[in-house]
Amino acid sequence: MNKPAKRIGILTSGGDCPGLNAVIRGAVKSSWQLGYDCVGFLKGYEGLVDPVRYLSLDPKNTSGILNQGGTILGSTNKGRFAATVGVQDRVELDPRLLDGVQRTVEQLGICGLICVGGDGSLAVAQQFHERGIPVVGVPKTIDNDLSATAFTFGFDSAVACATDALDRLHTTAASHERIMVLEVMGRHAGWIALHSGIAGGADVILLPEIGWTFEDVCHKVLHRESQGKRFTLVVVAEGAELPCGNLVSKENGGEGQARLGGIGDLVAQEIEKRLHRETRTAVLGHLQRGGPPTTFDRVLATQFGAHAVRLIVEGRLGEMICYQPPQIDSVPIIEAVNHLSQVDPNGAAVQAARALGISFGDHPADESPFNIFSVAEESLAMAEAVTAEALEVS
Ligand code: F6P
Questions:
Q1: C-alpha separations of 159 from 168, 234, 360 in Å
Q2: Residues in CB range of 200: below 8 A, 6 or more apart
Q3: Ligand 1 pocket, mutate which of 159, 207, 259 (most atoms under 8 A from CB)
């Protein structure tokens, strides 16, 4: 490939999610509009070095991918670049790897490399930046756990998938008068569980951010029965700790982060043991990461792709695109990684859920937690103050 005057590189790293192809398409189309050409490295950072593997990307070969799940470039959360977990607990990359990456970038004449990834992958991008390799970051993950951005693309699609599953479980749970437990992903953040639980009409939502007990979960089931409701829907986040404080995880083959999963079955077994009610588990797993992105994710991912190109053109290297509604903005990558965004136990969504009677397993179902309406009371007080002031003025 000839070395052009202006070339942008792009790669997708870490676990995939719906919307990656929309970012690639958005970046390629906007690069070409501005007179840049593009190459896409294969299998995340792996394609950058020994052996270098890339595709030339143009508006033609990225046409028609906007609505496709996965990534045409491939991705991995394993391999030579996966040892780096975050910034505070970071593992330095092998300097020979960094030399190799720098050589590739120089030889191909890349003026900016768009790294699309989650926390771990962006921490690698930060090390590239410190080494003088021209990078910008684009945040992606179904977990929505990056604090610098209000939303990551992929999250809305995962929530839509989990909500659809709850809709389906609802009818079969009602027909058989059963308790259904749905385990969803999200790692150490409960966003997918909280949002799908609210959207799918769950009765109990168990999150990593709110401690819970089996007594209170069972109490909710019995409370519903006392109201004539003979089925219950429970959503549990894979990263919700058991009451004893343990996380439930699977073998991970010794590479990368622990693989969470299995809590759904434990919750179902315990409910069945305590209440002698038929209980079933559904584990959504990677279904949440597949399939077409939702409209919201397509729009967000397309904007992220286009704005990442803008950062490179403006020379704002070492920054990560973020969504701070209504703006698409950017922050230094170093500030963006390693700050986990978790559900606020006193936030508006949790309070609204509690106000509806959804249980978080942290108190008996017939006792209201003290702070349900604190947000509503504050807003009311504020509205009264504004009205009083308006009356005074008039
Ligand atoms: O970070 C995205 C995520 O899907 C998590 O929600 C989940 O715990 C993990 O990745 C699964 O990873 P893997 O694809 O390696 O099984």
A1: 14, 15, 18
A2: 162, 163, 164, 165, 166, 167, 170, 233, 235
A3: 259
Pure H helices in the chain: 20-33, 95-107, 119-130, 155-176, 191-199, 214-226, 263-275, 295-313, 333-336, 348-355, 374-393
- CA of 15 relative to ligand 1 center, distance in Å: 6
Nearest atom within ligand 1 for CA of residue 186: 6
In this prediction, residues 24-35 reach a mean pLDDT of: 98
pLDDT(375) > 50: no
Q: Which residues contact 243 (CB under 8 A, 6 or more apart)?
A: 211, 212, 213, 214
One-letter amino acid of 65: I
Pocket of ligand 1 (CB under 6 A): 15, 77, 118, 141-143, 185-187, 238, 259-260, 289
User: Of all residues in the chain, what percent carry a pLDDT higher than 70?
Assistant: 89
Pocket test for ligand 1, best of 185, 247, 263, 342 (most atoms within 8 A of CB): 185
With cut-offs at 50, 70 and 90, classify the pLDDT of residue 83.
low
Closest-lying ligand 1 atom to the alpha carbon of residue 288 = 4
Query: Which listed residue (16, 37, 119, 143) is catalytic?
Result: 143
143 assigned to active site? yes
Domains (range + CATH), the chain: 6-153+293-337 (3.40.50.450), 157-290+344-373 (3.40.50.460)
Query: What's the confidence (pLDDT) of residue 370?
Result: 54
**What confidence tens digit (pLDDT) does each residue in 193-208 have?**
999 999 999 999 999 9
* Residue 326 pLDDT greater than 80, yes or no: yes
Model pTM score: 0.92
Q: Does position 53 have pLDDT exceeding 70, yes or no?
A: yes
Which residue is closest in CA terms to ligand 1's atom 11? 259
